[in-house]
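On clarity, I found the account of how folds are encoded harder to follow than it need be. What matters is that the chain and its backbone geometry are given together, residue for residue. For the editor and my fellow referees, an illustration may be useful. For illustration, here is how one protein appears when written out as sequence plus structure tokens:

___
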Amino acid sequence: MSRVGKKPIPIPEKVTVTLKDRFVTVKGSKGTLSRTIHDAVDLKIADNLIEVSTKTDTKKHLALQGLTRSLVDNMVTGVDKGFERVLEINGIGYRAEVNGNTLVLNLGFSNPVNFELPKDVSASVDKNTIIKLSCIDKEILGQTAASIRKLRPPEPYKGKGIKYAEERIIRKAGKTGTK
């Protein structure tokens, strides 16, 4: 059985959750998020708690229960506190800057790369090499961070590229000299 799916979701004071026709809407101080709930899963909202239950105990429905619980919990956390993802740029001459809704990245290519940020994602750059992305939707934030990292993934020999702040790059030894 799903251990994650059984755990109730606490609703903070400033957050309101409404469920209407398989459509859950979460409103908070940072914004509003909405999502459609799968037919095999039911939500019950009572006493500042959200409980997720399934109609049957099949393996697929229990998996959907855990997934739905995680998605709704991320919605509640997002509208209350928000999410943040930090990327680091390593390499000589590599840098980033924000121009409006565009992230301009100099990554060793002949021209700078202009990356258009999604409408809900905001970015700030510290020391020209640390990019901080913030958003209320964890899914959009993770996809945006992965797309930026994909522009120049870190390479294992010198460690140049864009990496997540918590990521550790395993370095390889380079060529040894000729005899």
Q: What stands out?
A: The longest strand covers residues 83-90. DSSP finds three helices and 13 strands in the chain. The mean pLDDT is 88. The domain at 3-80 is CATH 3.90.930.12 (Outer Surface Protein A; domain 3).
